[in-house]
Amino acid sequence: MSERAAMWEQLEREAREQVQAELDVDEVTPLEFGAAIVWSDCRLGRTNGLSEVHRVGFPQINHAFTACGELIPAPIRWVRASAAVIRTMGKCKYCEAELARIKREKAA
Question: Parallel, antiparallel, or unpaired for β 46-50 and 54-55?
Fold first, then answer.
């Protein structure tokens, strides 16, 4: 194996280890109610874009759901987006409405 091929192999191995470490953290960190979440949309085995910005809802039957009731996919599909990026993306109107309703109920 050439020195260049060995360098690329080591780089790929380190990148995979970093991604796996991030996934391990995501899998054990509980989702916070109301937090913004975005994931990659996959259809027919291919990624074809990003979801709207959803809000984390209440867990049901040991699964994580958005406030609008959509099942949150596995952490491998989550996209880490900054607050600025989230502000520019489309938001799920149902999640936003549910979050506002719950906040109103708590305030009353």
Answer: unpaired
Is residue 89 within 8 A of residue 52, CB to CB? The reply is yes
- Kind and range of the H or E run holding 48: strand 46-50
Cβ contacts of 94 within 8 Å, gap of 6 or more: 67, 68, 69
Alpha-carbon gap, residue 76 to 26, rounded angstroms: 9
Tokens found for residue 5: 């091929």
Instruction: Using a pLDDT cut of 90, give the percent of the chain over it.
Output: 31
Q: What is the 3-state secondary structure (H, E, C) of 16-37?
A: HHHHHHHHHHHHHCCCCCCCEE
Q: What is the pTM of this model?
A: 0.72
Q: How far apart are alpha carbons 108 and 85 in whole angstroms?
A: 33
